[in-house]
Structure formats: structure tokens, C-alpha cells
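INFO worker-7 received task bundle
INFO bundle size: 2
INFO processing item 0
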Amino acid sequence: MVEAIRVYEHGGPEVLKWEDVALGEPKEGKIRVKNKAIGLNFIDVYFRKGVYKAATMPFTPGREAVGEVIAVGPGVTSWKVGDVIAYADDPMGSYAEEHILPADRAVPVPPSIDPIIAASILLKGMTTQLLVRCCFKDESGHTVLVHAAAGGVGSLLCQWANALDAIVIGTVSTKGKVAQAKEDGCHHVIIYKEENFVARINEITSGNGVEVCKQCEEHN
């Protein structure tokens, strides 16, 4: 038996129950992982509230973690017991001491990267990669507008776009987030609660606007 968070009904944080669960051994192509650090994401809240529907009830939330491989199923040759790996997305269930997942969902975590850092960045990094290289491919000379520039995805996106020599304009909600956005690569930061960001963007770009606007903010 291992301990895990279980959700029997949708609702607020009070529906999260810490209890013993039977996990079993990994089957063909799967590995069993003892979690070292677990990532928390807005999507977990959406499943808990019922905005997104879990495949079964009850369920264990969580889609991101770093852990140590403690057992491998038949046919698994890519991992061995003792390897430290990270995983994200499906299958859900990382809010637990241990988790079983397909071996091909795991990626190695080198000793130079703290498990807490790795567990906090993988899913957000995948989202950032989608925004920077797939939805619209940022290039040198582009002017990129990033909403929620000081947030988890926003901070990664600003760093990446800046590294590509794009001109990065970020919006934040408060003055306290301005320094963080600048540190993460914004050339210009707009406090959208205090300024008309459309007017400011026209001013910054001399009326030329931006190549792309990327929304990095979650909404309920």
C-alpha cells in the first residue's frame, strides 16, 4: 500500500483525501516510480473542480513529478531501478507517494538538476515549447507580446523569445511583478491594470503592432 490523494467528488480543496491505495507491480512496458517532487498545475484544479472530467471516479490528480525508478515491468530496457526520471501529462495520478506509468513517458533528470526544479518546469516547459516553436515560430526581429509575463509559462516564454533575439513586450498585473518580467527577458513591461496596453504597444512599436500575442494566463 502507498498513500495518495484521492478525489471522490468535485469541489474545493476539502475534497482532496489522503489515504492508502493499492498500486501493484508495473506491467509490460511500464515502470513504478517513487516520487521525490510533485508539480502543481492549474489543470489539476480543473480536474478537481470538474471543469475537466477524469476518466474514473474516484481518481488521483496530478500530471507532473520527478521520482526514482523502483521497479520495471517486462520488456522495459530504457530504465533501471535507481534511475531518476521526470514525467508529465498522462497518465494522471502524480499526487501520490508512488506512481506507475508507461516507460516511454519518462525523461532522465541529471544530478545537476534539483528534483524540485525539474518537477516544477516540465509541463510548463512543454507548453512554452508549443507556444514558441509550434503555434507561431518566434524569430529574431519579431515583436512578441506576452500576457502574464511573470507567471510560470510567461517567464519561460519571455526568456526563450529573448534568447531568439525577439523584442519582448510583457504585461503584468502589478508593479511588484515588473522586476521579475524584466529579469526574465522583457524589453518593455506594461502594467495592464494601470495602463492602456493597446496604446502603450502602439507607442512602443511606433504603430506597427506585434507579430504575435501569446496569452499565458489561466482563467476559471
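INFO item 0 finished
INFO processing item 1
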Amino acid sequence: MESITRILQAKKKSKAALLVAIALVVMLQLSSHITVKDSQYLRVEVVKTEETELHLPATLDLRSQRALSLNLGGGNCKWQPPVYTVPEDIDFYKTVIAGFPSGDKRMIFVQMEALTGWPAKDEWDFEHLGMSNHPFIKANYPHHEGVWGWGDVADQVVMMVRNIRRSMVEYHDILWDIGYAKTWEDASLFLDNLYSERPPLTDFLAWRDERVMDEVHWYGWFIDYYMEGGLLRDIFTHKTTTKEHWDMLMMPTVYTRAELDYDLVVGADTVVTDAYDPNCATVTEGCEPVAVISAENLRDYTRGPAETSLIANVLKRDSRIGDYVIEQETWDCIWSELIENGKGLKTVYDRPGFVESDYNFSAEMLEEMIHELDRLITKYSSSPWNTKTTANKLVSLITEHRALVQEELSQVLDGSRILTDKDFLGPKEREMRRKLASGSPNQDSEKDYSQYFFDMDRKLLEIRRKEMRKSLYHKRKEVEEATNKPDADVHRRTNRISRTV
């Protein structure tokens, strides 16, 4: 590259200088000593001379080379993983992939990684491992499973929307994968377990009934938060609320639902002035999403390629990330590589065992889901929302979801879908069955089971930790026996768990 620079300096303003430089690089590429990968998606190298600047494509700069999906021509491609070490000196236009906890955000950022060659990073990793220059940020915030860990580096938001009923199942299954961990440190021990198996049906415990009924409201509240650009609302009444109340809502493990009651904290007759989450002011385009994306559409063999194109076009909105997007002729192929050929990271759709339809919900829970979806459909199909592409996409998706939930509700009500005591039943259904089993249908239950469920939660976490430590121990022994030397990586991870447990 020094020889190229010298030629450019000698030629100064000559238009032939760049052609000479390109010719030299082609010669280098044919050499057995240096290999230059073909790509036009990398950042531009600026070569300065005494009198002018010439922009040298990064494909001609060996220092800029990295792995990315390859365009083989004719619409063909080859998927490559991104480079996970991101240079700090590149000015990216950064995208937040926001969505209710359910696993499908990974489906979207895997597409972004394949389209650009650059990696994504989780909000909690920003919070605990420190800031970095990753252009894609996976976020559950403002849900209580999330945290605004990325500071002020984001430029735009895309929102992932998944079927509400499926979200509840996968949300629980991910919690099971990470051992019902309560901290980032605990969760990080179990990341290798993600999507590796389906939890036993018996692990759907009574306390989860209570959780799901509340999470239905969190689901709709989450959508409102982003669609309205961070407008502060109460989770359960969906009324606009005060900053004081909002801060309390952000700490659901500190306050009980009764302590968070809107009328108690804000006041039923209080006139609340619209207020917005100050975090959203740090996002270049604000928290309102520039696109609504469906991971379920991505999995659909008819609609999937169009969803990949939507993601690519979102990235191309700004050249600071758009210049890295592979050519449009390959986008269908990228979709095929990830979805049909299963390339890339493991996702929710790789989970073996039971399918989501094996998990049942009571009529009470399904009715609550339908009520929340009806609220969203009514709101975002009305003026002024119905003039926005994002709102129309949202309404289209949740209308489909509502039809599926309604179909399941009809099956529960007519008896064609039979519920058992091990299903998600909801507090009313489970209490009714408890009373019938005790022979006292009119007896009211006043007992507080919160400590019982807290202790059970801790027990489940302890069991999962022991299983993980045992698994890593056996893996280390297998590696040591096969190589006759200790496996350092497994040894470190086993010791880390030993210190934590």
C-alpha cells in the first residue's frame, strides 16, 4: 500500500493515478503472498496528497479487509459470519432493534449482520461490559427485562413485533434457558443454553399464571412506548403518566402492583401533561421506529425475502451503514442462506422438543390478549396513525395475531382444546379449580403464596446452575482426555461458575 501512496503523491491531480493504483492492487491480488477479498461495502480510505484528496475504496486497502457475505454474481451469495471486533474509528449510523422479550430480535440482527458484515450487541452487554462501536443494538428496554445500556450512541430504531401468545411462551422459555437468572452475571453463565431444548411442560408453574396476565399489558405498553416516541404511560391503564410514576414503573421488583396503582400515585382526577422518556432525546431520529419488522414474516417462505429487503433498505437510509450493505441482487439469497439453509446464530426457531401449540392458555388469558390487541388495533388504525407506514404494518400484523388467538379461544370454549391443571390457566381459572378440588367452591383464599414462589424461583435457579457446572465439568474432562492436556477455555468457564454458585 505504501507504493500506491507514493504513486498517488507523484501524480497529484492526475486522473490516471487511481487507475494505476487499482492496477497495482490487482497485481498484488494475483500474488501468492497477498489476497484481497472483493467487496465494495467497506469504509472509504482517504489518501491525502499535497494538493488534493483522492478517495481510495477500502477494498483496495488490505488493513480494512473483514469477513462479510459474498456476492457470487447472478443473485448468488455465500453467507459469512461478521467480524466481532469492531474498529472504534468508524462513524456508523447505529440501529436499535427493540422488541418485547421473546427471542425474535435475534432473527432481525442476524439479518443485519449478514447484510453488512458487522455485529450486534445486547443492551446488557453495553451496560456491564462497557461501550463499543457496534452498529446494531438489541434491546428489551423499557420492559423490565431490559436496560438503556447504550448511552447516547443510537441513531434510529426498528421495532420487532411478534404474536402476543407466542411471545409469552418463548419469553418464559428463555427465562428457563438462563436458569430464571435475576442478574446479568447469572444469565451470562447460561448463554450457551439458549434455544438448545424445550422446557418441561411441568415447569409452567402457578406463579407464571399471574406473570402472564400482567405481561399482556406490558406487551401493549411496550408497543405504545416506541410508536409514540417514548411517551410516558401507565402499564395497566395506558393513561399518560408522570415522571415520578414512570420511574416507579421502571422498578417492578421494588414496588408491588398495588403500590404502582395509577390512582394512588398520580390521582384519578389529575391532569397530566405529556412527558417523554429523556433517553429518547439521545437517539438521532427519536424512539419512534423507522420500520416495524416481523420475525414471523422472515420465517415465511412467501413473505420472508420481502422482510429481508425491508431490513436492508432501513440500513441504506444512511450511507454510514448503508455503504456496507451487500448488493440488492443478493438479498433474496441472504434470506435463503439464513432461513432455508440455517446459517448464522442459533435462533428461537432452532429450539427442539415441544412446539408452542403444546402450551395451552385458559379462556381468561386468551380473552385478556384479545382485549389488548383490540385496543392496539383500534388506536393505530385511526387518525393520525393510519397515514403512517409503520402503524399500518403494525395493525396488519396484530390483526393476523388476533385471529389466531380468537381461533384458540373458540377451541377452548367449545371443548375441542382441553386444558389440564399443568397448563397456563390464569388466576381465576386456577382458583376455581382449587376450590372445586377442596370441596369448598365458595371459600375465599387469603393465603399469600409470594414467599413460596420466591423460594421456588431460587430453587430452580440453583438446579440450573448445578446442571450447567456439571455439563462444563464433563466437557472439560472429555477435552482433556482427547488431547491429553487441559482445555483452558472450558476450565476458565467452569471456575467462573464455581466462584458464582
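INFO item 1 finished
INFO post-check item 1: The chain has a mean pLDDT of 76.
INFO post-check item 1: Strands lie at 45-48, 53-56, 70-73, 76-78, 95-99, 120-122, 136-139, 156-160, 291-293.
INFO worker-7 idle
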